[in-house]
Design goal:
Elements lengths: L12 E2 L2 H11 L5 E3 L4 E4 L7 E4 L7 E5 L6 H7 L4 E5 L13 E4 L2 E2 L8 E2 L1 H8 L7 E5 L5 H6 L3 H4 L2 E8 L8 H15 L2 E8 L5 E4 L2 E4 L2 E7 L5 E3 L27
Parallel strand pairs: 1-13, 5-6, 5-10, 6-7, 8-9, 10-11
Antiparallel strand pairs: 2-16, 3-4, 11-15, 12-15, 13-14
Length: 260
């Protein structure tokens, strides 16, 4: 499957003014917002595997979990709310734990379904949720494959998700023009119908210097659909009291207000 191949050994430092503009135009689309009157809580296990989300689950009919590995703690918390979870991971032979509302398929998610063992996000959503259902949840942690998946996923699919939790990888690839275009298209699609409401750096990653600005290479983002309430620019300093470092032996990465 096509993926973003970019290592930290490939010049993860850039102080040029043009790069500052690239950073602003792309990561500026991820400016955090608050949804007025909507609280947030942490779902999933402590430290790595937990995500901060809006407490907005009434009427949610199904959730989609892309990338399982050895952790279904988030899936369990969502399933315990009575929400059915459709799970996809082609790299495991069985789930690490089970729940009556878990529906797992040994399938990977790709920008197209030309490779055996993979399906598109549109295919799995259309196969499991009626087209009128626009109250879904998405959790995505597919180790860098998210960029081509979301760069090619139409708004007709993404707008069906009320809330999206996603871990994005290799942000230092913005230093490469070709990769920057892929990331720009993915973030443009993700932000078309959603606002970022929470951001957290995964401290298993590292820092890159882009346009003279330190940026974590791996981020956890929570997005809420724009029709869920009244939004305003957030004044929150990240990380918050709801956050925990992914790597317990390292300090959480300070992001401030995450403005570019």
């Amino acid at each position: 499957m096509p993926e973003l191949e970019y290592s930290l050994s490939e010049a993860a430092v850039d102080y040029s003014p043009p790069m500052r503009g690239v950073l602003s135009s792309i990561l500026g689309m991820l400016t955090p917002h608050d949804c007025v009157g909507v609280s947030k809580s942490r779902y999933g296990r402590l430290f790595d595997g937990g995500y901060v989300m809006a407490d907005d689950f009434d009427g949610v009919s199904a959730a989609y979990s892309l990338g399982i590995s050895n952790d279904v703690s988030w899936d369990l918390d969502i399933a315990n709310k009575g929400i059915k979870i459709f799970q996809f991971d082609h790299m495991i032979n069985q789930l690490p734990a089970h729940h009556p509302l878990f529906v797992w398929e040994r399938t990977g998610i790709a920008p197209n379904a030309s490779e055996p063992g993979f399906k598109t996000l549109a295919e799995v959503v259309n196969a499991n949720s009626p087209s009128i259902d626009r109250d879904l949840i998405l959790k995505c942690d597919i180790e860098g494959h998210e960029w081509p998946v979301f760069a090619t996923c139409g708004s007709d699919v993404l707008s069906r998700f009320r809330q999206i939790v996603i871990e994005v990888h290799a942000l230092h690839a913005l230093l490469n023009d070709r990769h920057a275009d892929l990331i720009r298209r993915a973030i443009t699609n993700l932000s078309a119908h959603h606002h970022v409401i929470h951001v957290h750096a995964n401290n298993y990653g590292s820092w890159a210097i882009m346009g003279g600005v330190p940026v974590p290479t791996v981020l956890e983002l929570t997005l809420l659909r724009k029709d869920r309430g009244v939004f305003q620019d957030s004044t929150t300093e990240f990380p918050t009291s709801l956050d925990m470092p992914n790597c317990v032996s390292r300090a959480d990465f300070p992001l401030g207000r995450f403005r570019f």
